[in-house]
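Help: why these numbers?

___
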Amino acid sequence: MSRAAIISDRRITGLSADVIAELVAELGPLWHERHQTKLMSRQRKRAIGAGAKHRLVFVDRLLATLVHLRHAVTHDVLACWFGVDRSTITRAIGEVRPLLAERGCTVSSGVRLRTLAEVIDHLGSSGKTGIIDGTEIRVRRPAAGRKDRDRFVSGKNKQNAVKTMVVTDREGRVLFCSPTEPGSCADITHARQLGLVKLLVDGPAVEILADAGYQGLGAQTGGRVITPPHRKFKKNAPDWYEEMHERQRKAHSSRRIRVEHGIAHLKNWRALARHLGRREHISDTVQAIAGLLSHQQNADLASTRPR
């Protein structure tokens, strides 16, 4: 009954039944292969396949993970829904979440982007404009006395957070979410650490829109990163300059607003509104949700195209 209810109502997972079916067909064999490899990697007193059978089949493991990512439902509640022990749900989510993270972002049928280099190549070959922005996700405060405890304090929001860089196209479709960095890392520093400057300099001619947090990348990439115009007058600016600067700023903001919409769709998944789990799992969580969201966006787009 839980399985039927979850699949039939898109509000529970954020995914249509067709997309869930594709996930089952794609990830089921991968999960089974990894499970068998794990069983064969150690000495055993019983043959593989002996003993009690799984009470939670792969479909239910996938659905439990999707519900957890979408609504941040606790493992205890999911255990009650599926009639298993809490540790079974924890183990299932720990096995399925990396599989979802490795899928990458779907841009069309059979085409997925897993790295920033693939995103730049895709934008260059398709002639599309990319939009980048950083977003922060609140996390639990590290324990007192822990080394580098202050690294997670965001200078922007004054809270413990991690940061990820999101790349979308002009329609707001998610193309890439980076692994996370502590909240004290600046947006421009994170972009440089990901190798964005080198990829743009050595790669195809691509237009990338960014906000003021990335000012400086334009000069390093030959103008391929476009940021809001610098303010030349700090005091006593003429009226004509104020009007021109505001007009230019709004024109740039209207072009890059789609990345904010993409981030908002990501934050609709409650696991990214505030992460209450282990910080070492947050990168997999971000990339898993980005892959699921892009898959559903592509499915919705395909269903609205005229045949």
The two ends are 36 Å apart (CA to CA).
